[in-house]
Structures are given as C-alpha cells and as structure tokens.
Write a structure and sequence with these properties.
With 150 residues, the protein is an all-alpha fold. The protein is built from three helices and no strands. It has a domain at 49-150. α2 (20-128) packs across α3.
Length: 150
C-alpha cells in the first residue's frame, strides 16, 4: 500500500502525506490567505465604490453647470425674443403709420382737386350768367340772415 501511495505521489495524483503540525500550518496559511483575499476584495469593492461616488459627484457637478448654462441661455433667449418682438411691433407700427399718412395725403389731394374743380365750375357759371349770380347771392344772404335772427 505504501508503494502505491508513493507511486501515486510521484505521478502527481495525490499530495504527500502531511504530519499534524504541517497540516495545521498549511491550514493556518490557507486561512490567512483566504482572509487576505477577502480583505483585498473588500478593498477593491471599497475602491470601486469610492470611484463610483467620485464619478457620480462629478456627474452632478457637470449637471449643475449644464443646468446653470441652460437657464442663462433660456433667459437670454427670452430677452432676445422680447427685444425682437418689440422691434417687430415698432416696424409694423411705422409701416401702418406710413400707409395711413400716404392714404391721408391721397385723400387730401383728392379733396383739394375736387374743391379746385368746384371753384372753377362756380367761377365759370358766374362768368356765364353774372346777373343771375347776383340775384342768387342776394337771396342766399336773405335766407342766412333770417336763419341767424332766430
């Protein structure tokens, strides 16, 4: 049996038989190694958690800065929109005023022309019939006088 165990050990199939002291020492070494592995994993997890915290903190800072920039952009846009709206209203008001002025100038010109034509027509009628014009003016004066007496 010992020969079989030795040949199995040589072939690498089994580990050599250990004494109790060697077995305890190996067990302690294995236990310490396990503890070191566990502490190492915890440190790695702690380091990963710290890295995650730092990334989240940086992301929140960037988000805060982006929000501030967006707020400024919206405020600036609203100010520009209000300014543009004011300019547009001013332009439209001036355009309407210019149209009204042109329309009023046209109406005044037409009224002046119509008045000039009426005056020329009356002058022409007076020149054609001067005696009848004097009588009509006399009668118009009497009518206006009677109306003012009341």
């Amino acid at each position: 049996m010992l020969t079989n165990a030795m040949s199995a050990f040589i072939e690498g199939d089994i580990s050599p038989p250990l004494s109790n002291e060697e077995s305890n020492e190996e067990s302690n070494t294995h236990h310490v190694s396990g503890l070191l592995n566990q502490v190492g994993r915890q440190l790695m997890e702690s380091k990963a958690a710290q890295d995650d915290y730092a990334r989240v903190k940086d992301d929140l800072t960037a988000l805060r800065e982006d929000l501030a920039a967006l707020t400024k952009a919206v405020a600036s846009s609203q100010a520009n929109s209000a300014s543009n709206l004011k300019d547009e209203i001013s332009k439209e008001t001036h355009a309407i005023f210019d149209q009204l002025r042109a329309s009023g100038d046209g109406a005044i010109a037409r009224a002046t022309e119509a008045g000039s034509q009426t005056v020329e027509s009356v002058e022409h009628k007076i020149e054609e019939r001067p005696f009848l014009s004097i009588i009509l003016m006399f009668l118009a004066g009497i009518v206006v006088g009677k109306m003012l007496d009341r």
